[in-house]
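Bit of a strange request maybe. I'm writing a small parser for structure token strings and I need a real example to test against, not something I typed by hand. Could someone generate the tokens for this chain?
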Amino acid sequence: MNDTNTPERQVGRRIDRLESRSKVTGTADYTHNVVLPRMLHAKIVRSVHAHARILSIDTSAAAAVPGVFKVVTAQDVMRVIPDPHYGPAFHDQPILAIDKVRHIGEPVAVVLSDDVHIAETAAALVSVEYEVLPAVFDEVQAANNTDVLVHDVLRPAGTFPDLKHLAGRKGTNVALDYRLRHGDVKTAFASAAHVFDHTFRTQQVVHVPLEPMVSIAQPLDRRIIIHTASQSPSFVRLEIARLLGWAENQVQVKTRLLGGGFGAKLYIKLEALAVALALIAHRPVRVALTMEEQFYMVTKHATTFRIRSAVDADGRITARHCEVYWNGGAYADIGPRVTQKSGFTAGGPYDIANLDIDSYQVYTNLPPAGAFRGFGITQVVWAYESQADLIAHKLGMDPVAFRRLNLLENGRPHATGTVLKDAGLRLVLDQVASAMDWDKPLDSGTGTVRRGRGIGLGFKALVAPTTSVATITAGGDGSCTLLISTVEMGQGSDTAMAIVAADVLGLRAEDIRVVNPDTDVTPYDMATLGSRSTFSMGNAVKQAAQDLLDKLRALAQEVGLPFEGTRNISTLLKKKFGMQAGTVVGTGSFVPPYQSPDADGRSPDITPNWMVGGTGIEVEVDTETGQFRIVRMENVVDCGTPLNPKVVQTQITGAAIQQLGATFLEKMEFDAEGQLRNASFSEYKIPGILDLPHQMGYAAVDSQQSTGPFGAKGLGESGCFGVASAMAQAIDDAVGVRIVSLPITPEAVYRALAEQRGEPLANTDSTP
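Reply from user aminoacidic:
Good idea to test on real output. This should exercise your parser:
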């Protein structure tokens, strides 16, 4: 492993997270704690219409309030940033609305004051006159109807290699259409023994990290410091520098611990607004959202997924056509990447000889949608696994046997042309089935409360191409400091990276200090997203630690002393400098292989690894009321070699619990005008302790990612993949009704039961 004969391997140790003590003692450092001299507070005036032209903005009453420093509109912003449009895929989102608004809640003006309460009071006095325009809310309607265009012009950002081809469809609301063509679908359908055609829908939900979004911009002389709760500090620096026309070294981004992110705090969110306000005011400005305001910032895509499958007499899927519409809301954010990366997995983890996929990112007049834990995978798994159950039922096959028959095996090419490697699909499926005692009969009951069970299996391609760079330094006393821009937001990344470095260097993970991201200090990392950090940054950290060892070995040869790994760093440096002094620096970088897909969506190297997750659920359903209770849940993932087994349980169960919320509780409720009706925790419910199964199991299969650091790959999302479809199948197994739209509520079950009895109920839902 290394030259130090380490007495204990760090990989596989059960280690408390490095930041855990500071969190439980209240000394943990968050951006919300930052207070700067002369700092102003910002309160945002938001649009009350989903689509409208701005005719006038009257700020006089607000400006007259004692204590108000300034009221800012887009015209003020454009004096310091002439083209204030940003975004990772398209430069389509203005810092403040220019000429028109595209969703309710869009920022139109900002009030600045030393006192946040004065700013809030004054913001209510800003008067905006609008000319209301027709709006579109449904993703399928928006994609196929050009009567209402959310954007007239699209400007691709061109920042990321995998999105450089973006152009959008002119004169439509389609920002990206990804297509995959594999085999001859038409011929296979014509000769199929069975054809299945279903449509599944998911709803718009929101991340609601318990630490709301916050950014503070601090202007200096031709420099600016941004203190921000961000998952992507390197991208923030790059994008702010672009907006200002400055060099990157004039923009410093500092990120502390995050109180959750789940994709909400990626790319640019509040940072551009904070910077513009600080440059206008010539003072530090703090922009902090309330919990309610987060509902208007970024959400999870609602989807409509039509899936058609051809199946032969033996139960093999011979062809499949997938048509997925993603509701991207008013601004693209990173939705085009979700559409592409999750789009090419929409056929499922199955060996299908003929597969066509059409995946559309669509603009609507709802709040923007972007990255969310699972990165679109939960939406497509919901559809393809729900249909797998329906096919198995129709053919009289056991659902697990149907999946085993059709699984894509390692060594076989995925429909994209990329060969499946190191993916524990069969291992995960078999272990879930074993944990659920699938081969034993289930007592379904005979009374009004019936029992049922279901299994769901999903996989995810790691995002590529990306870049991660790491630096590790050894000081004069031999202590080591790891500098990375991976953001610790509760997932245990600091600890995982310390484990990797320590294992190489022959140290304990607890002895490695990990520096919070600071773009003046820590090197580039694309972002903390998509479970990429363990694999991508882990490989960079491993290289950096090895580079440090190599330099120490060279130093030992230079000063004529034996090399003893990290145990004699102090001795080596004292011999070279004559005192406790000097620094030895190791660096490493990692860019996974990637080949852009061709016109048919195919590539021999579309992802560096596959993450796999499966879930089994057993429920009780009351046939008289539709109420249901989760009796138990079993979650199994393939994460390669677990770096820190102590974090595996929390990562798996945390992902599963979050997806449980989207499965049976959470839904952003919009009225017919696009007004959100439940933007608070009093009305928007996330899972609480009483919503969880009494019995919740977790496991990671015995697997290894051959290209990962010490065989590891990410697991932060894998636990959420199969939850929703397993729940739907368990209810179907119990009472014989299949729910095809999320969330699965007791009302939805009751309505389905009533329809089953021939007593359908009137639908009163007015959601657009």
